[in-house]
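REQUEST ID: PR-0412
SUBMITTED BY: lab tech R.K.
PRIORITY: routine
TASK: structure prediction, single protein chain
INPUT:
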Amino acid sequence: MYEITQSIGWAIVFMAVGGIGGIALVVAASALLPKLLNRITPHIDEEKEIVRGNVAVAQYFGRVVAAGIIGTSIVIAAAVLGGILAAACF
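STATUS: complete
OUTPUT:
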Protein backbone atom coordinates (compact mmCIF):
# COMPACT_ATOMS: atom_id res chain seq x y z
CA MET A 1 0.00 0.00 0.00
CA TYR A 2 2.91 2.34 0.76
CA GLU A 3 4.35 1.90 -2.75
CA ILE A 4 1.07 2.92 -4.36
CA THR A 5 0.82 6.02 -2.19
CA GLN A 6 4.43 6.88 -2.95
CA SER A 7 3.86 6.47 -6.70
CA ILE A 8 0.79 8.71 -6.55
CA GLY A 9 2.76 11.27 -4.58
CA TRP A 10 5.59 11.33 -7.11
CA ALA A 11 3.07 11.59 -9.95
CA ILE A 12 1.53 14.63 -8.27
CA VAL A 13 4.96 16.20 -7.76
CA PHE A 14 5.97 15.61 -11.40
CA MET A 15 2.61 16.94 -12.59
CA ALA A 16 2.88 20.10 -10.46
CA VAL A 17 6.47 20.85 -11.44
CA GLY A 18 5.74 20.14 -15.11
CA GLY A 19 2.61 22.27 -15.00
CA ILE A 20 4.39 25.25 -13.46
CA GLY A 21 7.26 24.91 -15.89
CA GLY A 22 4.80 24.53 -18.74
CA ILE A 23 2.93 27.67 -17.81
CA ALA A 24 6.21 29.59 -17.72
CA LEU A 25 7.19 28.26 -21.15
CA VAL A 26 3.83 29.10 -22.72
CA VAL A 27 3.98 32.64 -21.32
CA ALA A 28 7.54 32.99 -22.65
CA ALA A 29 6.48 31.63 -26.05
CA SER A 30 3.55 34.02 -26.27
CA ALA A 31 5.90 36.91 -25.52
CA LEU A 32 8.71 35.85 -27.85
CA LEU A 33 6.83 34.56 -30.91
CA PRO A 34 5.52 37.96 -32.07
CA LYS A 35 9.04 39.40 -31.77
CA LEU A 36 10.46 36.46 -33.71
CA LEU A 37 7.87 36.90 -36.45
CA ASN A 38 8.76 40.60 -36.69
CA ARG A 39 12.44 39.68 -37.12
CA ILE A 40 11.63 37.08 -39.79
CA THR A 41 9.69 39.63 -41.86
CA PRO A 42 11.82 42.79 -41.61
CA HIS A 43 10.22 44.59 -44.56
CA ILE A 44 6.67 44.32 -43.18
CA ASP A 45 5.65 46.27 -40.10
CA GLU A 46 2.84 44.04 -38.87
CA GLU A 47 1.70 46.38 -36.12
CA LYS A 48 1.43 49.31 -38.52
CA GLU A 49 -0.46 47.21 -41.07
CA ILE A 50 -2.89 45.96 -38.41
CA VAL A 51 -3.54 49.55 -37.26
CA ARG A 52 -4.17 50.54 -40.89
CA GLY A 53 -6.85 47.84 -41.06
CA ASN A 54 -5.05 45.22 -43.15
CA VAL A 55 -7.06 42.15 -42.17
CA ALA A 56 -4.85 39.70 -44.09
CA VAL A 57 -1.75 40.65 -42.10
CA ALA A 58 -3.70 40.50 -38.85
CA GLN A 59 -5.04 37.04 -39.61
CA TYR A 60 -1.64 35.73 -40.74
CA PHE A 61 0.11 37.18 -37.71
CA GLY A 62 -2.51 35.81 -35.32
CA ARG A 63 -2.55 32.35 -36.86
CA VAL A 64 1.22 31.96 -36.90
CA VAL A 65 1.57 33.08 -33.28
CA ALA A 66 -1.37 30.90 -32.19
CA ALA A 67 0.09 27.87 -33.98
CA GLY A 68 3.40 28.39 -32.19
CA ILE A 69 1.70 28.62 -28.80
CA ILE A 70 -0.42 25.52 -29.46
CA GLY A 71 2.66 23.60 -30.61
CA THR A 72 4.53 24.60 -27.47
CA SER A 73 1.56 23.52 -25.36
CA ILE A 74 1.43 20.09 -27.02
CA VAL A 75 5.13 19.50 -26.37
CA ILE A 76 4.73 20.55 -22.73
CA ALA A 77 1.69 18.30 -22.28
CA ALA A 78 3.68 15.34 -23.62
CA ALA A 79 6.51 16.11 -21.21
CA VAL A 80 4.15 16.33 -18.23
CA LEU A 81 2.47 13.07 -19.24
CA GLY A 82 5.89 11.43 -19.55
CA GLY A 83 6.75 12.61 -16.04
CA ILE A 84 3.52 11.17 -14.67
CA LEU A 85 4.13 7.85 -16.39
CA ALA A 86 7.72 7.79 -15.10
CA ALA A 87 6.42 8.39 -11.58
CA ALA A 88 4.04 5.44 -11.96
CA CYS A 89 7.03 3.19 -12.72
CA PHE A 90 9.10 4.72 -9.93
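NOTES: The mean pLDDT is 85.
REVIEWED BY: pending
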